[in-house]
Amino acid sequence: MAPDSINTIGGEITVNGRTYKLPKQPTVVVCIDGSEPGYIEETVKAGRAPWFAKVMKEGTNLLADCVVPSFTNPNNLSIVTGRPPAVHGISGNYFLDPETGKEVMMNDPKFLRIETLFPSFQRAGCRIAVVTAKDKLRGLLGKDLKLAAGKACSFSSEKSDKASLAENGIEGVNALVGMPVPDVYSAGLSEFVFAAGVKLMERDRPEIMYLSTTDYIQHKHAPGTPVANDFYAMMDGYMAKLDALGCTIVLTADHGMNAKFGKDGQPDVIYLQDLFDGWLGKDKAKVILPITDPYVVHHGALGSYAVVYCADPAPQIAKLKAMEGIEAVLTKAEAAARFELPPERLGDIVVVSTKHKVLGTSAAKHDLSGLTEPLRSHGGISEQRVPLICNRKMTAPAGSHRWRNFDAFDLALNLVA
Ligand SMILES: [Zn+2]
Questions:
Q1: Cα 358 to averaged position of ligand 1 atoms, centre (Å)
Q2: How do strand 5-7 and strand 94-97 relate by DSSP bridges?
Q3: What stretch(es) of the chain map to CATH 3.30.1360.110?
Q4: Which of 123, 209, 314, 338 has its CA 20 to 30 A from that of 80?
């Protein structure tokens, strides 16, 4: 990919093959983790989100498709690069690294193959602020940013007390926000992101801000439930403050969320490693779940997408295709083409389960003790629809274009008044 070019006369930059106007006012993109369509609408219906009510009527209210696998890392990186995983390289939260043969988290910035938009906007003279709920995303999102007080910062709620000028471009975050470090399993972890966004906008007025939350609430509470409505009502208040500060705000999600349990209230799981062990012999095939995360309390590492490494995949693909609960079974090449994924970071088979089913490895390997509510999860095609909302009106009709969540910066900078 050619390096970014800056056209100062036109006030535009081209990054990763897409052109963006430089911001005329502070531009905030919010990734609401796990925000399936319906959460915001239900809170509006309950009369608890006056800002959203106004924006969805008078601003821009679209639906978009996220990247499959509908997981956090691939989608956050698509939103901040403007490109699919085939280009940026982040194919899951977790993968089998072909260079080392080891299973690792995909949090290391070395796995990101292109720059995010942020260094280019910084070189064009913009102040940048990146705030995430969990620290695991910070390294990827802040890659290549020149951190400096008041100019560029990148930090998480989770480690807000550890933020330093050298590592994060900011210190004294808790004093600035007026909140202590929240529990990693709480709505407070996301609230901290919004509260920090407002304080930073008041103090430093960054031209480009990216706020990314955690889906702890969405994993446990469906749209319209009291806890979900409380969460979106809380968000509504912070968005109203950013709006009052003159920001263009685009909100989208990294993925949706669906109920994944049976009539008995237990997770409805297809344990793929157990299946393959039965078909081929123990450990002849290797099942990898790219949802895997150290924070398993939300979902017990159960999602609707898995990759399988095995010799001679064709007969296994045929067996999987005949099974109930399987939405798609694809070869590596088919999956790479259909979902715009990097083939060298996929297994030999890609499996996607249906809306209310999840995929596991072996039954014995999943710790489901943290599931205090019936399982809600994501990863599949059934969680691809997400909101794409802006507090300003589009300058031209939206048309029948297939919107992606990674059009968020394009919408904010190029397509609204
Ligand atoms: Zn997520």
A1: 16
A2: unpaired
A3: 269-374
A4: 338
- Cα separation, 315 vs 102, whole angstroms: 26
Q: How far is the CA of 378 from the centre of ligand 1 (A)?
A: 8
CA atoms of 242 and 197, how far apart (whole Å): 8
**List of residues 6+ apart from 312 with CB closer than 8 A:** none
Amino acid at site 396:
A
Q: What tens-digit pLDDT sequence spans the chain (417 residues)?
A: 444 566 655 699 999 999 999 999 999 999 999 999 999 999 999 999 999 999 999 999 999 999 999 999 999 999 999 999 999 999 999 999 989 999 899 999 999 999 999 999 999 999 999 999 999 999 999 999 999 999 999 999 999 999 999 999 999 999 999 999 999 889 999 999 999 999 999 999 999 999 999 999 999 999 999 999 999 999 999 999 999 999 999 999 999 999 999 999 999 999 999 999 999 999 999 999 998 876 665 678 899 999 999 999 999 999 999 999 999 999 999 999 999 999 999 999 999 999 999 999 999 888 888 788 899 999 999 999 999 999 999 999 888 899 999 999 999 999 999
CB 302 within 8 A of CB 290: no
Residue 206 CA to ligand 1 center (angstroms) comes to 25
Expressed in angstroms and rounded, the spacing between residue 137 Cα and the centre of ligand 1 is 11
Report the CATH number of the 5-256+384-415 domain. 3.40.720.10
Helix or strand holding residue 385 (H, E): strand 385-390
- According to CATH, the topology of domain 269-374 is Gyrase A; domain 2 (3.30.1360)
The two tokens of residue 242 are: 């950013």
Ligand 1 center to 309 CA (angstroms) = 25
